């Protein structure tokens, strides 16, 4: 904590620091809330193993938030993530080999940890609006922070390599999951192929569209601001839509150990979809809109591969709370994917409906 306190002091906060406490549930960075007499802040120790070039991440964040401010005009207040500079200037502090940054903590707002139909609709709305706000920013102006982040065929190759190498000696036990994934390898490349051929537009996408990456107003419960802009990159809107459903419309947590409890909640799926379509408005092309369910299926399988890859590699990427955590996560993703396959027709009906 002492190191954190020192780090916090380097940033240009308002007023005297009062309290520093851990917050958030991210799998990647460590986040702390700093309360000062003049307001609250989020101090983050950046995971430089995952983001080896945090300066490029911050350049992206500045471009993205500037674009949001342009799009929102005089409605930008409380609707755009605010970075806090160092007293000495700049946005990143390097201290004892660690890298820190700070954001303003939005007052009287919260990041929902649980989906309800109302939360889902606001989440969809926020990410749909985000897509629309990014219309004025050429995706090629952003650094591709994590190359191939949602290149599902590349994720498949990485997964196959992990299976072959079996570094941690865990492949045998995971065989049924491995087979489930490999049986579905054919359809995995559709979206990436669509981008490559130009049939699907390359857009500025968020790439981590969980409900807890949207801040809602405490009083009105309406969406204010999209956060966690680290993985905003050129990509396909289908993955953003799909990831909302994958994370937010499941009946269970991402690491539910009992597969029987994992299902796709159609009421939530419907609310996310309604919100997203309303927020994105006329931005989506008819083909994108029609293929939204494919986004949900593809990213859920991709996430299953990512968790299983990490399990096979000996848990080197995601934070884990117990041995086998990544295996549990992969199993739950596959159960969700199975439910999505079963309900594909219902998902297709959702995106076909007029607004
Ligand atoms: C990671 O920790 P968080 O919520 O920012 C991951 C996402 C995964 C997610 C799974 C940079 O996100 O891609 O979907 O975990 N982020 C990175 O919950 O890998
Ligand atoms: Mg994230």
List the helices and strands and how they pair.
Blueprint (H helix, E strand, L loop, with lengths): L1 H8 L7 E6 L7 E7 L2 E7 L8 H19 L20 E3 L2 E7 L4 E2 L6 H17 L18 H14 L9 H8 L7 H8 L5 E3 L8 E4 L5 E4 L6 E3 L1 H12 L17 H15 L5 H27 L12 H18 L1 H9 L3
Antiparallel strand pairs: 1-2, 2-3, 3-5, 4-5, 6-8, 7-10, 8-9
Helix pairs in contact: 3-7, 3-8, 4-9, 7-8, 7-9, 8-11, 9-10, 9-11
The chain binds 2-acetamido-2-deoxy-1-O-phosphono-alpha-D-glucopyranose and magnesium ion (MG).
Explain what this protein looks like in three dimensions:
This protein has 355 residues and is α+β, with helices and mostly antiparallel strands. The protein has two domains: 2-107, Phosphorylase Kinase, domain 1, CATH 3.30.200.20; 117-352, Alpha-Beta Complex (Aminoglycoside 3'-phosphotransferase, Chain: A, domain 2), CATH 3.90.1200.10. It is 44% helix and 13% strand. It has eleven helices and ten strands. The protein has helices spanning 2-9, 54-72, 117-133, 152-165, 175-182, 190-197, 237-248, 266-280, 286-312, 325-342, 344-352, and strands spanning 17-22, 30-36, 39-45, 93-95, 98-104, 109-110, 203-205, 214-217, 223-226, 233-235. The strands form three sheets. Strands 1-2-3-5-4 form a five-stranded antiparallel sheet, covered by helices on one side. It has a three-stranded antiparallel sheet with strand order 6-8-9, with helices on one face. Strands 7-10 form a two-stranded antiparallel ribbon. Strand 2 (30-36) and strand 3 form a beta hairpin. The longest helix is centred in the last third of the chain and has 27 residues, at 286-312. The chain starts with a helix and ends with a helix. The model has no long low-confidence stretch (mean pLDDT 95). Bound molecules: 2-acetamido-2-deoxy-1-O-phosphono-alpha-D-glucopyranose (GN1) and magnesium ion. 2-acetamido-2-deoxy-1-O-phosphono-alpha-D-glucopyranose binds at residues 26-28, 50, 208, 228, 231, 254, 303.
């Amino acid at each position: 904590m002492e190191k954190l306190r020192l780090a916090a002091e380097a940033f240009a906060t308002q007023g005297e620091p009062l309290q520093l406490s851990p917050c958030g549930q991210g799998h990647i960075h460590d986040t702390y809330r700093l309360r000062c007499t003049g307001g609250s802040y989020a101090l983050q120790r950046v995971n430089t193993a995952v983001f080896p070039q945090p300066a490029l991440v911050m350049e992206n964040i500045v471009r993205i938030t500037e674009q949001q401010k342009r799009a929102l005009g005089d409605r930008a207040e409380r609707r755009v993530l605010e970075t806090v500079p160092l007293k000495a200037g700049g946005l990143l502090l390097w201290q004892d080999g660690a890298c820190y940054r700070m954001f303003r903590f939005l007052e009287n707002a919260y990041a929902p940890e649980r989906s309800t139909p109302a939360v889902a609709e606001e989440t969809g709305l926020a990410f749909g609006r985000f897509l629309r706000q990014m219309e004025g920013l050429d995706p090629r102006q952003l650094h591709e922070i994590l190359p191939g982040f949602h290149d599902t065929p590349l994720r498949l190759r990485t997964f196959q390599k992990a299976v072959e190498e079996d570094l941690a000696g865990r492949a045998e036990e995971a065989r049924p999951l491995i087979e489930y994934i490999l049986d579905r390898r054919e359809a995995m490349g559709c979206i990436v192929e669509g981008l490559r051929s130009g049939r699907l537009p390359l857009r500025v996408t968020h790439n981590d569209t969980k409900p807890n990456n949207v801040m809602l107003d405490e009083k009105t419960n309406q969406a204010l601001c999209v956060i966690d802009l680290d993985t905003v990159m050129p990509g396909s809107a289908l993955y953003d839509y799909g990831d909302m459903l994958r994370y937010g419309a499941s009946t269970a947590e991402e690491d539910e150990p009992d597969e029987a409890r994992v299902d796709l909640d159609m009421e939530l799926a419907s609310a996310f979809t309604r919100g997203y379509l309303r927020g994105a408005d006329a931005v989506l092309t008819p083909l994108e809109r029609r293929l939204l369910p494919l986004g949900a299926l593809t990213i859920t399988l991709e996430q299953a591969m990512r968790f299983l890859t990490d399990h096979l590699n000996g848990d080197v990427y995601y934070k884990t709370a117990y041995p086998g955590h990544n295996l549990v996560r992969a199993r739950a993703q596959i159960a969700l994917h199975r439910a999505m396959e079963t309900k594909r027709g219902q998902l297709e009906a959702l995106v076909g409906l007029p607004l």
